[in-house]
């Protein structure tokens, strides 16, 4: 019984010591180093990296396709 009480105490203390800061709309976590399966896109308020799964990072659109379609319609 004392072992169970000790385990519960240690678990509760560790939960209080390591708060998790969310970022990127709750899809990322602020860390000093990202995991291998994560990328960082922005910085957190604490100057840590906002580590996000790559599927949540926006992809830049190709402006060249938009420009060629606008040029072809304005030439008519």
Structure description:
The protein is of the alpha+beta class. It has a domain at 18-58. Helix content is 37%, strand content 20%. It has a 4-stranded antiparallel beta sheet with strand order 1-2-4-3, with no helix packed on it. A hairpin with a 4-residue loop joins strand 1 (22-23) and strand 2 (28-31). The protein is elongated, with a radius of gyration of 23 Å. The mean pLDDT is 78.
Q: Report the sheet with the most strands, covering strand number, pairing sense and barrel closure.
A: 4 strands, antiparallel
Poorly predicted residue ranges: none
Number of helices: 2
The first-to-last residue Cα distance is: 85 Å
Structural class: alpha+beta
Mean pLDDT: 78
GO biological process, one term: defense response to bacterium
Subcellular location: Secreted
Signal peptide: 1-15
Function: Has antibacterial activity.
Features:
4-stranded antiparallel beta sheet; alpha+beta; 76 residues
Brief rundown of the structure:
By secondary structure, the protein is of the alpha+beta class. It has two helices and four strands, in the order H-E-E-E-E-H. The mean pLDDT is 78.
């Amino acid at each position: 019984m004392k072992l169970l009480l000790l385990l519960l105490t240690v678990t509760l203390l560790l939960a209080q010591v390591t708060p998790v800061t969310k970022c990127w709309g709750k899809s990322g976590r602020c860390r000093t180093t990202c995991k291998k399966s994560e990328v960082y896109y922005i910085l957190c308020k604490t100057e840590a990296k906002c580590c996000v799964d790559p599927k949540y990072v926006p992809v830049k659109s190709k402006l060249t396709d938009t420009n060629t379609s606008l040029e072809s319609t304005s030439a008519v």
